[in-house]
Specification:
2 copies of one chain form a homodimer.
Chain A (H helix, E strand, L loop, with lengths): L9 H9 L7 E5 L12 E2 L14 E4 L13 E9 L13 E5 L11 E4 L3 E6 L2 E6 L21 E3 L7 H9 L4 E5 L3 E7 L3 E2 L10 E2 L2 H12 L2 E8 L3 H12 L4 E5 L10 H7 L3 E4 L4 E2 L5 E5 L2 E6 L3 H19 L8 E7 L10 E10 L4 E5 L9 H5 L2 E5 L10 E7 L16 E2 L1
Parallel strand pairs in A: 4-5, 11-14, 11-15, 12-13, 15-19, 17-21, 20-22
Antiparallel strand pairs in A: 1-10, 2-9, 3-5, 3-6, 4-8, 7-8, 16-18, 18-19, 20-24, 21-22, 21-23, 23-24, 24-25
Chain lengths: ~425, ~425
């Protein structure tokens, strides 16, 4: 008999999921391997940057007062009493009438207070001594990078949960993080169900299709920051399925299944959840595609029943799994990034439920337009390869017109949104 | 003595670099490892998707004509003569007055031409036979996913050079690519020069700084799609440097050095390039930061002398190295993505050269605003950790005002630009 399920609004469903936190440990890994991971601790400057007053140019460290009367007609002459390579320190005194040759990045001698660039002086040698001529006055502090001007000791640099891109890596290296504290990747298991599924290596057979969802989700898990673990395809035998789910649960933080969540005779996921005494958060969401998405918790583990349809499976993952993975990584913006865009064409399809349309977002010179990508059917796999966004159309009986401003969720952005589920209302500009 | 160098406009410099192609082989790797790689071949559909007419719902396959007179008051009754699980095929004939139970994704029997959803029928059993009642008429082709409606055999699906995101992975799995042809990652070596550099593990010492550039560039190489190989920090000894560069060149496709490209007494890169008889494409670019960026070619290898200043080094990489790596990966959009944004504050600093300002791009609901990130000095390392864009300000003697629309290069976007170096002119909207 057909089970009646009450569809939950999308925002409520996400909210229910987000209440469950997967707690994850910190691990220290070499900086060379830390790219694309998430910081597990705040990083605070333990020294000034620059750590000393330094020269931003190749040139000569001088005492500015000595140049007050310098002009093209009456250049002043200073004796060069030494040289400072980057990385070395000039220990002697520098007096009036003297200068020191200094390399980019080297520490300014104590007695000096300005730097003259190499190009601006005339050098000459006299009696075995080196001299420079300067043709204009310099002010105190000219051409000096001051200790701490970039960053003062104690400054909070980047916070826990920050995604490590190359600019963050530079900062970590500057502050000596040869080993970097990052959030361990949550282990996310994937099981595909359905006797219609051929292994990716098998030739096509009548009535059967290749298992594309599992590989797609494995890629989604990696992209969201998780460690993906594939447990293969299950047959339609209930006991085998149940045991496989139990085995998988012993190895993962989060378990994803695809297929078997509808109300068909071979849709075992609901029965498996019941058998495990899992707490089903919801088994129907007021959305298209993916309305049959089921989420359950079992102590501190999460079990997802994603749809067997590729696009429904894809959307279910991005809405309900991605933020849980990102939360475990301490991200403060765990959801897909929400933005707005001009709807490039009419979208006449009426729909009682909130609809997520796979779409191509196009940059029109600083503002965005969005176009549905390919066939908008939940079974479509080709439209996913073109899509870089989901158009979010709230439930209602009417369609939407070209040039309305609609909400979009961006699929390929590293940076996410805090909570995108407010004020989703298309409008004319 | 100071060598005179003629600064080359940025677009010309990029153009010169792009003439040199690094040729890269194809390798076949398991689909599970192909995420974030680039396809080395066009992918063409070798079968229809779906490969047969299938049911998008759980329900009953019927002959539509049988339901012409069905109504709430006068439901019609069909005998259920069998069942088709997903993945199996119904071999028997279906005649008038008959129906077949069908699961989501299963193949429609030859004789049937519509599907009735499970929820819409009333089931009953009579004398050991199963029947359904249908209360409204269905049309031919109702609720059928037709063979090839998603993709027809022979359709070009994704082209060589496509970045493999989860949607592309789904497509590859659908078409049986257990092994995926991807471009081999070009091997990019990194050498840091400068005796002021401390290893990342060493405690600070007077006059010295930690080597942050090398780790930053290693991360940039990975992000751009290359395989990064670190050759360590060199001292200021010329012969040691030369030998290290020669050794590194025997192991890489592209070699990056950081530091040592200015006109200081310890800046050996120009002399090394001369010694190697490398063809110097340019050694000065009309830009800030990074004007000393040097690029040379040596047969089919590229050698880069990037600045020792963190931000100058960063910008030099993104402008001149990233597109060469992406080209080797067959990307059709190898450059940083160009977009436009509203300048959020005045930028009064005048500049004779084109300026790249590290900046934070903020989404203001479908249109973008951009704000300089931190201190705009080429030595600044902290501003890089906040930045997600570079503001591009063309050379000129005046500054730029708030609310002008300026060009920006996006740092964290997977998708790039074809050729961003046209029409860079700020304007008021």
């Amino acid at each position: 008999m057909v089970e009646k399920r009450t569809p939950l609004p999308v925002a409520d469903a996400v909210h229910k999921v987000m209440k469950h936190q997967t707690s994850i440990d910190t691990e220290w890994i070499p900086i060379e391997e830390a790219s694309e991971r998430f910081l597990a601790e705040d990083i605070v400057a333990d020294h000034d940057v620059p750590p000393f007053n330094k020269s931003p140019y190749d040139g000569f460290a001088i005492i500015a007062d000595n140049t007050t009367n310098a002009s093209r007609e009456h250049p002043i002459t200073l004796e060069v009493i030494g040289e400072i390579g980057a990385g070395s320190v000039f220990e002697n005194n520098v007096g009036n009438g003297q200068a020191v040759r200094i390399m980019t990045g080297a520490k300014i001698p104590e007695d000096c207070d300005a730097v003259v660039m190499l190009e601006l002086v005339q050098e000459h040698t006299d009696n075995g001594k080196n001299f420079i001529e300067i043709k204009r006055p310099f002010k105190q502090h000219d051409n000096i990078s001051f200790q701490g001007e970039d960053t003062e000791k104690g400054t909070s640099l980047v916070s826990k949960g920050t995604y490590i891109h190359p600019g963050v890596t530079a900062l970590l290296a500057t502050f000596g993080y040869a080993q970097v504290p990052v959030a361990k990747k949550p282990v996310v298991g994937v099981i595909a169900t359905g006797s219609e599924l051929l292994d990716i290596k098998e030739p096509l057979q009548p009535g059967k299709i290749r298992n594309s969802n599992a590989y797609m989700i494995l890629a989604q898990v990696q992209k969201a920051g998780g460690e993906a673990k594939y447990f293969g395809t299950l047959s339609d035998d209930f006991d085998t399925c149940l045991q496989a789910v139990k085995d998988a649960l012993s190895e993962v933080d989060i378990l994803l299944t695809t297929g078997g969540v509808s109300v068909g005779d071979y849709d075992y996921i609901p029965a498996i959840l019941k058998n495990l005494k899992a707490d089903v958060l919801f088994n129907k969401v007021a959305m298209r595609p993916g309305s049959v998405t089921t989420v359950a918790s079992l102590e501190d583990q999460m079990i997802y029943g994603l749809s067997g349809n590729p696009s429904a499976c894809y959307v279910g993952f991005e809405l309900f799994v991605r933020p849980i993975i990102q939360n475990a990584l301490h991200s403060s913006t765990p959801h897909l990034r929400k933005s707005k865009a001009r709807l490039g064409v009419d979208f006449p399809k009426p729909n009682p439920f909130m609809r997520f349309v796979r779409a191509k977002l196009v940059d029109e010179g600083g503002s965005a337009a969005v176009f549905p990508a390919g066939l908008d059917k939940s079974g479509s796999v080709t439209s996913l390869s073109d899509a870089n966004a989901l158009i979010v159309l709230p439930g209602g009986t009417r369609g939407y017109q070209q040039d309305m401003i609609v909400d979009v969720l961006l699929l390929n952005e590293g940076e996410g949104s805090e909570w995108p589920w407010e004020n989703i209302v298309p409008y004319y500009k």
